[in-house]
Write a structure and sequence with these properties.
CATH topology of the largest domain: TIM Barrel
Number of strands: 16
Radius of gyration: 23 Å
Number of helices: 10
Oligomer: single chain
Helix content: 25-40%
CATH architecture of the largest domain: Alpha-Beta Barrel
Shape: elongated
């Protein structure tokens, strides 16, 4: 418990740098290059610069405004739009992204026309559906799709990729990676191409990478959470040698009183439209923080003290302080999961404090 004002998120750049370099060397040992995913930190130039300084030369983000932010901060990297562009934003995609991930021919045709208009060449990676059922071209339609893409000017096909464990929770395993490698070989032979990127997935690929004897044609992964939080994303297992505490959320106690543990009176829905349930604990010390789900994904917070989060509204979070005598003005620190980091980094009302020592 400290006293210096909040709410804030403390971001340890030295720990992120350590993670980035360690993963760069680990994956590089088997010929896999990383795209550093910056969407979780809202394309923050401070963090983007750390990634680049520790070997990661490609930065990927799902928000064009984040790519623009990093470009304007003169981050020396190649920039990738991490999701399929909308038709309405192709001008900005060509302007701010060197590469975009694509799965719709109509969008690629629009990117082509825009690139020609601006006398430039836009690079694309085609996403292939391999089971997770988010974005991707069905494998049986891939050859015909590529034939159409190769007719377009202003567009250069530089790779293929697949998504895993983001929507459907499907694991990237040895079988799926061999299938992706085989597709890459087929494409290269059929169309006399050399694919620069065969992007096999994301932070969920750690277990496959550690277990496989050969990565095949897979030479790229899109990694964010492992760099920021030191974990793989299938079971949130900590990766040996990495820091899992580079981010700390801090908020101030605005009320601390002994009160009943169960609300009393006639119960209806709360602000989220649900009827909450509470455990009878007798009288407890209920401490309130001046933040809520408008500021942070409260369910993604874990207290660093032996206290419990009872729930939250839009701008209050209620704690059971248990045996800790929290008082008004005290600050409480929390660890964050990836969703909580993302929500905090997009909140204008949470101060960002950067730390550069381990």
């Amino acid at each position: 418990m400290t006293q210096s004002g909040g709410p804030r998120i403390e971001i340890n750049l030295a720990k992120i740098a350590h993670n980035a370099e360690a993963l760069y060397r680990l994956y590089g040992s088997k010929g896999i290059e990383l795209m550093g995913v910056t969407k979780g930190v809202c394309g923050g130039p401070e963090i983007a610069r750390v990634l680049v300084n520790n070997g990661i030369r490609i930065l990927a983000d799902s928000k064009i405004t984040n790519l623009q932010k990093m470009r304007e901060a003169r981050i020396n990297a190649e920039f990738v739009l991490l999701r399929t562009p909308a038709l309405s934003e192709v001008d900005s995609v060509v302007k701010y992204a060197d590469i975009s991930l694509n799965s719709e021919l109509a969008v690629i045709k629009s990117l082509s026309a825009t690139a020609i208009k601006h006398n430039t060449q836009h690079k694309i990676i085609l996403m292939i559906e391999m089971g997770d059922l988010r974005e991707g071209i069905m494998p049986e339609n891939l050859e015909e799709f590529i034939e159409e893409v190769l007719k377009l000017s202003g567009i250069t096909l530089v790779g293929i990729g697949a998504n895993f464990a983001c929507f459907g929770g499907v694991k990237p395993n040895e079988e799926s990676m061999k299938k992706l490698s085989a597709l890459a070989i087929e494409i290269e032979e059929r169309f006399s191409l050399s694919l620069s990127y065969v992007s096999g997935g994301n932070s969920a690929n750690y277990s496959w990478f550690m277990d496989t004897e050969s990565t095949g044609h897979v030479n790229n992964l899109r990694v964010g959470e492992s760099i920021l939080l030191g974990r793989e994303t299938l079971c949130r297992m900590a990766i040996p040698g990495l820091f899992t505490d580079a981010f700390t959320f801090v908020s101030e106690v605005i009320e601390s009183k002994i009160k009943p543990s169960v609300p009393y009176g006639e119960i209806a829905q709360n602000v989220l439209g649900v009827s909450p349930e509470f455990q009878e604990r007798g009288k407890i010390r209920r401490a309130i923080l001046g933040v809520g789900f408008q500021d942070v994904l409260v369910s993604g917070l874990t207290p660093r003290l032996d206290i419990e989060i009872l729930g939250s509204s839009s701008d209050h979070t209620v704690l059971d302080a248990k045996k800790i005598d929290l008082q008004v003005g005290d600050e409480v620190a929390f660890s964050l999961n990836y969703g909580a980091v993302l929500s905090v980094m997009t909140s204008h009302d949470v101060r960002k404090k950067y730390i550069n020592v381990i």
